Amino acid sequence: FKVLSSGALTATSATITGTITATDGLIGGWDIVSNTLESVNSKVILDSSSDGKIRLGSSPPTAYNNGAGVFLGGDGTFLVGNSSSDRIQFDGSNIVMVSDTFSLTTSTMILDSTVNSGTIRLGASGGPSSNAAGQEKAGIYADGTGDFFISDGGTSGVDGTESYLKFDASG
């Protein structure tokens, strides 16, 4: 090893114990920059300034409402996705979920924004699939055109036992 008169230390295969203080430099693929520890490709950033932040992405977001990737703020705010399109986001008060397609795995509820201006179906196997009687499926159907249907799942017809409440927006 060698120590220059300026105090600079150069060593190979050194084991150093104690506290190391640095405000700039590189350690094993990580760049120390002021209050951040960044991957050398700047895709992972740990920021200790103010409340602390973790930022991930090809160009990491700078806040919960700016950029694309993952942002976790020490104040509880977060962003997963793109702040201007599909995302899950918390601004400190509200959770925002934006997606052209939203899937929720469940066998008793279906939310579909592609049929009849949006549909909500509840019941075993997704419940009724329209506001038509006689489906023999207990549950609730509602859609964005104004149709609404609640059924006990019985059979309809003259001798049927289905009990239901129906609203048909078309008349």
Structure commentary:
- This protein is mainly β.
- It is 0% helix and 37% strand.
- It contains no helices and 16 strands.
- The strands form three sheets. Strands 3-4-5-6-7-8-9-10-11 form a nine-stranded antiparallel sheet, with no helix packed on it.
- A hairpin with a 2-residue loop joins strand 3 (24-27) and strand 4.
- The N and C termini lie far apart (90 Å).
* End-to-end CA span: 90 Å
Radius of gyration: 29 Å
Q: How large is the share of residues in beta strands?
A: 35-45%
Helix content: under 10%
How would you classify the helix and strand content by structural class? mainly beta
State the total count of DSSP E strands: 16
Query: What is the H/E order?
Result: EEEEEEEEEEEEEEEE
- How would you sum up the global shape? rod-shaped
Biggest sheet layout = 9 strands, antiparallel
Count of DSSP H/I helices? 0
Q: Give unreliable regions as ranges.
A: none
On the 0 to 100 scale, the average pLDDT is 90
Summarize it.
The protein is an all-beta fold.
Topology:
Elements: E1 2-3, E2 9-10, E3 24-27, E4 30-33, E5 36-39, E6 44-47, E7 53-56, E8 68-73, E9 78-82, E10 87-90, E11 95-98, E12 109-112, E13 119-122, E14 139-143, E15 148-151, E16 164-167
Keywords:
mainly beta, 16 strands, 9-stranded antiparallel β-sheet, 0% helix, 171 residues, 5-stranded antiparallel β-sheet
